[in-house]
Amino acid sequence: xxxxxxIKQVPSTNEVRLDPxxxxxxxxxxxxxxxxxxxxxxxxxxxxxxxxxxxxxxLSMGIPATERLLRDTESRGADAACLLSDRAFAGxxxxxxxxxxxxxxxxxxxxxxxLCGKMAVDGDTAQIGPELAENLGIHxxxxxxxxxxxxxxxxxxxxxxxxxxxxxxxxxxxxLTVQKDIVxxxxxxxxxxxxxxxxxxxxxxxxxxxxxxxxTGFAGSPTQVVKTFTPDGKREAQPITGSASEQxxxxxxxxxxxx
Length: 259
Ligand SMILES: Cc1cc2nc3c(=O)[nH]c(=O)nc-3n(C[C@H](O)[C@H](O)[C@H](O)COP(=O)(O)OP(=O)(O)OC[C@H]3O[C@@H](n4cnc5c(N)ncnc54)[C@H](O)[C@@H]3O)c2cc1C
Description:
Strand content: 25-35%
Distance between the termini: 55 Å
Number of strands: 11
Low-confidence stretches: none
Strand order of the largest sheet: 9-8-7-10-6-1-4-5-11
Shape: globular
Bound molecules: flavin-adenine dinucleotide
Radius of gyration: 21 Å
C-alpha cells in the first residue's frame, strides 16, 4: 500500500510574527514544529504499513527549513519525504495549498491512502484534507478516531461527530483526516535517526511540480487576509441581572450598541 502523510510546519510558540503588508505568518523555520495533529497521522501511517506492507512518504508544502521536520518523520518510520518549496507557493490559502499538495501526490505517482491531521493549530480551518481529496477526485472521511478494518480495497473507520460517532466504509484510494489520540506516536529510534540523515528526500519547485502558478500562493488564493490584530482583551465583564425578559432586553441593548 502506498501511503502519503501530509505534515505542516507550524510556529512552536505563540509569538506568531505576521508580515505587516501581506498579513501572512512569517515562517522562518527557526521556532517551528510539526503540526501536533500530524504526528498522529505519521504514526498511524507507519502502523498501517507494518500491518499491510507498502511504503510511507511524508509530504509538505513549505519553506526549505521544513526539511528538518520531514526528516524527523523519517526517523519515526516514514520511508521517504517530499517537499514542495517555491516562492510561488508562498501566502497560499487553503485552495492554493490543497492544489499544490495534489500536484505533489501526482508527482509521486499517486497514493492508495492519504492521511492528514484533523487541523493545523495555526490556520485551523480543517479544510485542506477535504479540498486535497476533491483535487484528486478521491473519497475522504474527516475526524477519524478509530480504524476498525483495513485492507487493500477499503477501510472501515469510526468518524467523530458532534453527537457521538458514525462507522463508515470507504473505498480506496481515499483520504482520512485523523483525530488526536487515534494512536500513540512513537519516539525516534537511534537507527531511525541514522536512517533519516540520508533517507530519500525530494524537493519539487513549482515548475517541477507542473504547477499553474496562477493557482498557487497569493495569486491562487481567493482568501486575502485584510487585517490582523491581537485583541486587547481588556474588556470588563458587564453583569446582566433581573428577570429573563429584563436580561434579554439588556443583552439586545448591548448588541445594538456594539453593532
Ligand atoms: C490565523 C490564520 C487564519 C487563516 N485563515 C484562513 C482562511 O480563513 N481561509 C483560508 O483559505 N486560509 C486561511 N489561512 C491560510 C491557511 O492557514 C493556509 O492555507 C494553510 O496552508 C492551510 O490551512 P490550515 O492551516 O487551516 O490547515 P488545515 O486545513 O487546518 O490542516 C489540516 C491538515 O492538512 C495538512 N496540511 C495543511 N497545510 C499543509 C501544508 N502546507 N503542507 C502539508 N500538509 C498540510 C496537515 O495534515 C494538516 O493537519 C489562515 C492562516 C492563518 C495563519
